Amino acid sequence: xISRLRLDREAARFSSIFRxxxxxxxxxxxxxxxxxxxxxxxxxxSAIVEVAKEGxxxxxxxxxxxxxxxxxxxxxxxxxxxxRPITLDKPxxxxxxxxxxxxxxxxxxxxxxxRYSEAITLNVQxxxxxxxxxxxxxxxxxT
Length: 143
Hints:
- The protein is α+β, with helices and mostly antiparallel strands.
- The chain has 2 domains: 1-36, no CATH class; 40-127, SH3 type barrels (Roll), CATH 2.30.30.
- 16% of the residues lie in helices and 36% in strands.
- The chain has helices at residues 15-18, 24-30, 97-103, 134-138; strands at residues 42-51, 54-67, 73-85, 105-106, 112-115, 119-127.
């Protein structure tokens, strides 16, 4: 009932009483602190994992997450995952959208399980989908 009525959200009047203080991962990985209007449609997770002594960047859409018996984050379930070695990083000035896509390699499979204990860094990005108008889709770009 507390979650349903959003009494535990950071901006809620009585959050100091109702907030689950031992569950910071829950709020981060669900976007629960956003207002209903601003709640993200997708959550993208990026993580660096060391594989064969090389840093690999994994990026995918968060599908689910699990905690261990002590309440610590255990694993993340990602979908539509891509990867690339960190060594393929380029300065931001040189990289373009087409180059970024080519540097990533898709990973086959329906679910990618990322064990949190193996992640060196973790980035969480909230994505809010917006509707595009038909007029904007049909108008040519001006240069």
